[in-house]
Amino acid sequence: MTRDLRKYAQQTSVRLGAGALLVLFIVGDGLIYLIYGQGPALMGLICLLAGVAPILIIVLFMALLDWAVKRANRD
């Protein structure tokens, strides 16, 4: 039985990233909501989304580049 350690590492990285984002949004914004109320929690959510947007754009761009390179190197 062989194990694909690169696939496992990539899968683990994706899961850790998704978990970190969930904790940031749920716990972080949840605490803002509990302490300050609905208005500040909404503003906190908007700020979190604005902060994550550039990172998501970079990740999507890198995935697109990876796809293009793999498609070009089929030969």
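Next protein, fold it too.
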Amino acid sequence: MTERIEQIETEARAAVAEAGSGAELEQLRVRYLGRKAELTSILRGISELEPDQRGPVGGAANRARKGLEQLFETRSDEIASAELEQSLAAERIDVTLPGSPARAVGHLHPITRTRRLIEDVMIGLGYQVMEGPEIEHDYYNFTALNHPPDHPARMLQDTFYVEVPEGGDSGGGSQDVLLRTHTSPMQVRAMEATPPPLFMIVPGKTYRRDSDATHSPMFHQVEGLAVGEGITLADLKGTLLAMLREVFGPDREIRMRPHFFPFTEPSVEFDVSCFRCKGSGTLRKGERCALCKGIGWIELGGAGMVDPNVFGFVRESGYEPDSITGFAFGFGIERIAMLRHGVGDLRLFFDNDLRMLEQFS
């Protein structure tokens, strides 16, 4: 009997040494150490042996079983380690490669795309693109643009004023520094630095105390200025018509309505013909056009001939009010983007909701 136990142990050790996977090793464990294994049957039948054989056979069987249990445990660790190394080698990740699948590169924000479209159109018309400071002086934001001291826009509830630290140079009184309410201050700054003729646009951020579906405390505006000899209101209309046809389509028309702005005289508001109802105010089946509210025109911005008083602040730079004329116009970039893309709420542009932004990819 002891000889058979030795044979079983020898066979088991040879089989374990050749096992190449955890599943194969488990099968061998069941075969040699399981409840139906021959070695287990021998241990169960010890009591049926002759008294003089029980000790030697029982001792040999127990030693064989313990030895095989230790062998299986050791071999199991070896196989697990080898399988782990193979798995790591096969599944190695090259961190220098892009993700799989690679994420989309992304795209420009619709506000930026609209701004660049307007810039491209105006550059094609001979204008240069300029930028100015967002933190501005009262002089450039109001005074030099012919805003009287009691103008409502100078009030704290309408404008973000910047508190200047003690000892700081504000260039004026306690309310001299503010976040610009429009990009128009660059009219004066550009004329101070450049003699006529001057044709430029100024896109950029502006700030006002407004916040609702169609107003934002921070918004983007484009200011346009054309100054030279013999410039008339007809030139303004032609420029706006050419620009808006490039933005909204070649069939668009514009109209001007009398208005008032402190830094232009005469002043107008300009509208573009509705591109949804073709200027009729109604859709198919006689439905009222919701985009233009049934009037056939969409308000876009303000414009006018530069007030001679504004030229008076830059007279020393060559802008003589008696011989120089010019026009200015301004409108919100968000409004153009809302109309072009059918966005009903201005705040959607700033929520950073990918469900909305990915529509413009």
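About the second fold: The chain has two domains: 2-90, 110-360.
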